[in-house]
Amino acid sequence: MLRLDRIMTRAGDGGVTRLADGTALPKQHPLLEALGAIDEANAIFGLCRAQGPPAPLDACLAAVQHDLFDLGADLAQPAARPALRLSPVQVQRLEVWIAEGTARLPPLASFVLPGGTMLAASLHLARTVVRRAERALCAAIAAEPARSWNPCLVPYVNRLSDACFVWARLINAASGAETLWQPGCGQRAGMEAPPPPPS
Fold first, then answer.
1. Domain of 63: which CATH number?
2. Is residue 197 assigned to a domain?
3. For the whole prediction, is pTM greater than 0.85?
4. What is the pLDDT of residues 164-189, one digit of tens each?
5. Alpha carbon of 46 to those of 1, 119, 168: distances in Å?
């Protein structure tokens, strides 16, 4: 059973962080960048849940938060030891959610502007952070090609960003708040300038 009795350890004061086996890495190491981005994404999903999403979506987001801790444990464990590995089932579950959500949405004729309701905007933010986590994860893998990486890691975060996009669209569709990109909108002749912000 995991126990976290000490929060302030001072162990990182020298600019290093230790993995589960005690391996010390500099805080700017690509693996720690990936772990940090995953942690940031998890915090944003917590922010989404704090906004009171519909129960089915809340259950999805709760599962994702647990998955992201599994993913972090997978990354932090050395390859030589048994690890809590992210599984194909967790990737497939995201694919099912994406397919089910997409089937309930009208097809897109343009890109979607991030925004709409507060929850949808937060999900769009989560999507961008997950994309950054994916890039950081790919950089960590490239930095240590000899390590035995779990092949489910990149597919999971890739699907997760897609799921965030679909969930944001579903939330906005329910309130009519989705706005599509209008190419060249600001370049059209005769378009009135927006009013200045209040002083």
1. 1.20.1200.10
2. no
3. no
4. 999 999 999 988 777 777 777 766 65
5. 24, 11, 15
